[in-house]
Fold this protein.
Amino acid sequence: MEQTALKQLASRLSLEEKVGQLVQVTPDFFGNQGEITGPLRQGADQQKLYQIGSVLGTHRAQEVQQIQETYLANSRHKIPLLFMADVIHGYETIFPIPLALASSFDSELIQKVARSSAVEATKEGIHVTFSPMADYVKDPRWGRVLESNGEDVRLSTELTKAYVRGYQGNDLKDETSLAACVKHFIGYGAAEGGRDYNTVDLSDIELYQNYLPAFEGAISEGVRLVMTSFNSIHGVPVTANKTLIQTVLRGKLGFEGILISDWAAIAELKDHRVAENSREAAKKAFEASVDIDMMTDCYSQELADLVEETESMEALDAAVWRVLQLKNELGLFENPYRGMKTTVDKKELNEVAYEAATRSAVLLKNEQVLPLKKEERILVVGTKATSTDVLGAWSWIGDCHAAVSLAEGMKKEFPHLTILSVAEETVEWSAIEEAARQADKVVIAVGETSEEAGEAASRTDLRLREIEQTLIDRVFKHNTNSILLTFSGRPLVLTEVEPKVKAIISAWFLGSQTGSVLSALLSGAQNFSGHLPMSYPRSVGQLPYSYQEMSTGRPKTSENADQKYISRYLDEENGPLYAFGHGLSYSQFTYSALELSAKQLQKNGQLTLSVTIKNDSKQAGYALPQIYFQDEFTEVIRPKRELLAWQQVNLQPGEKQMVQFVIEPDDLAYVHSNLRRTTDPGAFRLFLGTSAVDILSETKITFVG
Ligand code: BGC
């Protein structure tokens, strides 16, 4: 629609109709059953149903079509509804969970996954996805780390941007493009104690340094929507936090798109006790410039009167305009049923799901037990051996019955396979022990259910469940060649079981192709290439934890480890069991020392860092050289080491390749006490590593500011 026609349409809306555009409800209001992802509060009354602007959580195109038809037939201005949904790691074809995808450290792969999700979701009538989640995280007690890109802000920013590019494509008019909604603004991942929805308190430096950049990245890619988070920050729930929204999000970050509340978050301002009633809740959210009220009746009941009372028609018009603009950009006025007629190549989607899962699994330990050989007698046993609960939390359309379990995948590759599943009620230990004795190798498959990770799934104990630990002990007594394969939406605490197994694989939740991919990885038909985007802690007592340990006045060093007054635990090491960036491969890579194009970096200049990598094995594979840096002296404390750059390099057997990283002064910047991100002149140490703790070589440069 032409802009002038759209403006005329906007001007014809009554006050109530304008408010309606800002109200979002589930399909239940139209008599259909939608996806319920929060407590049910009233969203809009029936009378106002044909004025609302958007719907969330429909399942299929047919349902979207039916709701849209009924709506258009009954509404005065026939402004099509926007349909939104949580398309987080695929729609029907399920890709690995985001934390698993982040293990690929590969933004091109993630862009491809997001594109594929968009193609499938738009075909089912979806216009907007509530993804990506850009929350900075360092506490795996919080179940939603599953949806994150892990604990490094640079990695997370790059991957967040890739999701946005993938979903939105080049043009939103393209019927396979989905508008993206980056969430949750802001600080949600810092919930105290890792308890979901809990209070957050962050310093401004921390906020600017670690929490905002991924959102800034999404905005730079043109993300159309932002979602507010449930938590409070600086003492004020974000949904009512004028400073953070107006000054930071809309001001400093320059976001001009739609701001939507999280599920029922406006009404929850009453539970936070910062609003006495719905009127006040609506007022605070609206004044903060939250455009859409997801699933409460605060806007629908209160906003019209409020706008009159406070003479804020201009603000209302601006919010409505943002919604109408998006509808127009998506081409909904011309085609309210957009996307439904496109064709989806399921085979191609499955191939992407297979590739993504292959690149996402992480080999944490391997003492020469993997790969498995075809002629070996293998026992696969555990709570997850035959489970099809492998898709992960946000796979509401994905059919877990159609997913390939580990045992099913392995059956096709290993002729001498015994499968024993373990469920709480029916464990036959003697049969398991006998089978373990008979086997050459044992694959122990254990871990979380999809209910145990994700939203509202915080945990204080991240060890395997008791029966799984017993299983490992019992197998260990009879067979020491076992491979532990864990399914989880978060890093687990494996410190106690680690010595009892020869190999460990973090399989996260890998999606529809799980069993086929794991089987191919176990046999060596495929190679491991995933690296941890989040550290595996040694103990829950270390949390929150990030590899970016800050400098302290009393750091622990190799010289002072026996002294008392240093920063350490009495009963545990400081570091993780498996560090950020760690991940093994069947290939063996050798790395040259780091080489510099110059020792000095000039203002507005560049320098190039090179390393030559050789694949010294008989198997093709991906190497992941990781460059870390340390600013030697800083104005505010900074981490001992932080990730600067990385590259996935595919190398054939015997192949050698030089990899280059271009470094500019901005790459070395940090947030100072005046909240400005600038680079200090002076010395910087640069490290080449295969994880945050496995450092192969080091060099130094000076920035001449
Ligand atoms: C979650 C959001 C999600 C929304 C809609 C909320 O409970 O926090 O991430 O997008 O529900 O389903």
